[in-house]
Amino acid sequence: YLDRSQFDAVVQDTEWADLEILVVKVPSNPPYTSAQFEQWSQVWPVTYRPPLKLKKPEFSSDEKGYVEMCLQAAMQMKSNAADTENRARAVVMGKLQTRKIVAQAADTTSESGHPLRHAVMNCIALVADREVARLTAEPTDDNNTGESNSVPVKRSHELCEDRDVGGYLCEGLDSA
Prior knowledge:
By secondary structure, the protein is mainly α. The chain has helices at residues 4-11, 34-40, 61-82, 109-112, 119-136, 156-161, and strands at residues 90-95, 100-106.
């Protein structure tokens, strides 16, 4: 950043020395209110996107108990990871509808030497690997019922409507 005197010193022996230069402060962040947008758009081209008004999720006591169990599992993984060279970070992905833990993983950036081996990416990789295996499995009729064990591929919006089909990570939390 140059102040006005430094800027003038830089341009004094150039073709721009005779130009009238106006210094104007511009916003470094997007506007958060319509009033900020109105004010800032006078000096700089900005866009305004009103914040989403999300409904606060309400959980039953049973659901709260499940969420607390997932948090305790993450805290246990974190304390286990603290005993190693890991950075003591852990993630637990659970499915509220079935009360099952979908995946859990710890940070392995230190031991792997790879910056993308943090807990969230490790957890997502576990789910992705499981989904690839599920979707590429050979259909079999293990129970001699005449029905295949393969799961039909569904679009994400269909997965939200069909609660018995798993595999969609952002179920109920995505926007249309």
